[in-house]
Design goal:
Helix content is 43%, strand content 16%. It is globular and about 65 Å long.
């Protein structure tokens, strides 16, 4: 299968002109190493998954980092966090030296970069493919097959299929990332915690409720949630807020970075089962929200993606704020359009103190209208201005 081009490519090439160190983080198998290898084919690659390479880096970091004067690509760098301090010394002494770093733990990399490489490193986050990146394979699938398969490159490139990919993915994640980030003693209970999170996709996060159902204390559940967030399994969507309003809800909504992973953790075993599952609408919402998040991350921008909900129960699924402009989206998995979908979007300007530049309903039907006051968009044609 040919290389799948990523939206972030131009951004990384531009950033490489200004930073001595480029770091790309993201979930396992989101395509980080493939992307960096494609953009910088001259780089000499070292993987910290290799025990011998890792021991060399740990035992003699200066010799390891000077084993080549070419561009050095260190994969899974979070496994040897002490390297960051030595990289700082090298690029300070020789600004022409270049390092490429990739890893699947946002917490470890961001902590190390902020402590040792502030101002010297550009850090970017790469999630699984957007629908546009997935290309013809993604567009050719029906909605339920598309959501069930998800958007990891291995599945979209047909190197694997969902029924094999996700069990292996979760098993590897539990055995590697979870053990590295935290000493979880009961893996079965942690797996159940992941499943309980999947059952709450698109819902306001209520940690106490999960604690009660799982039988763990709040501290444990909160720390487990931080692991899922740091390793890019879940994404917490913050509520939109304006300083002058105190009526807005403060808790985030919970989503997974990939709809296929959420479907697997919900024990959905086929697109046909997904088509009749009560969580289908939420998984569709998960997809649309993460498309907005990818849009921001692929441009190297942080935040800017929200939902709206106030104390009166008024809610809008998705707000995107860029350069002071707001776009608002209602998300419906139905193929049949009704005017009821527009209700909250029509009222939104009266709830906000910021002008709403664009309002749109994203749904599964074929009828579209981008000329009206409220745009009607099929999910395949979702775009952000």
């Amino acid at each position: 299968m040919n290389y799948i081009h990523r939206t972030m490519e131009a951004l990384l090439l531009e950033a490489s002109k200004y930073f001595s160190v480029l770091a790309v983080t993201g979930p396992r198998q989101s395509g980080k190493s493939t992307l960096l290898g494609h953009l910088f084919p001259e780089a000499v690659r070292y993987s910290m998954k290799d025990v011998n390479v890792r021991e060399f880096a740990e035992n003699d970091p200066i010799a390891f980092l000077n084993s080549t004067k070419d561009v050095m690509f260190i994969d899974e760098v979070q496994k040897v966090p002490e390297l960051f301090e030595y990289i700082q010394g090298i690029v300070d002494a020789d600004p022409d030296r270049k390092f490429l770093l990739s890893g699947s733990s946002n917490f470890e990399i961001m902590k190390s970069v902020s402590e040792s490489l502030a101002g010297r490193a550009g850090v970017y986050e790469l999630l699984p493919l957007s629908l546009t990146e997935a290309g013809d394979i993604g567009f050719a699938k029906g909605l339920d097959e598309f959501l069930f398969d998800g958007l990891f490159p291995a599945v979209c490139s047909e190197k694997s299929v969902a029924k094999f990919f996700y069990p292996s993915y979760v098993r590897t994640y539990l055995e590697k990332d979870v053990r590295d980030l935290m000493n979880v003693k009961d893996m079965m209970q942690f797996t159940r915690f992941m499943k309980l999170c999947a059952a709450r996709v698109g819902s306001i996060l209520n940690v106490s409720e999960i604690c009660s159902e799982l039988g763990v204390d709040n501290k444990t559940a909160t720390s487990w949630l931080s692991v899922l967030t740091a390793s890019y399994v879940v994404y917490l969507l913050p509520p939109y807020f304006e300083n002058i309003s105190k009526r807005l809800i403060k808790s985030p909504k919970l989503y997974f970075t990939d709809p296929g992973l959420a479907a697997y953790l919900l024990d959905i075993e086929s697109p046909e089962q997904l088509s009749r599952d009560k969580m289908r609408g939420k998984i569709f919402e998960n997809y649309v929200v993460m498309e907005a998040v990818k849009h921001r991350m692929n441009a190297g921008r942080e935040g800017g993606v929200y939902f709206y909900r106030d104390s009166n129960g008024n809610e809008v699924d998705l707000l995107l704020k860029e350069e002071g402009r707001i776009q608002a989206f209602e998300i419906k998995s139905s193929m049949t359009y009704t005017k009821d979908f527009e209700k909250t979007l029509r009222n939104l300007p009266s709830w906000l103190n910021t002008p709403v530049e664009r309002r749109a309903v994203v749904y599964a039907g074929d009828f579209e209208n981008t000329a009206g006051e409220i745009n009607i968009i099929n999910y395949r044609n979702l775009s952000f201005i």
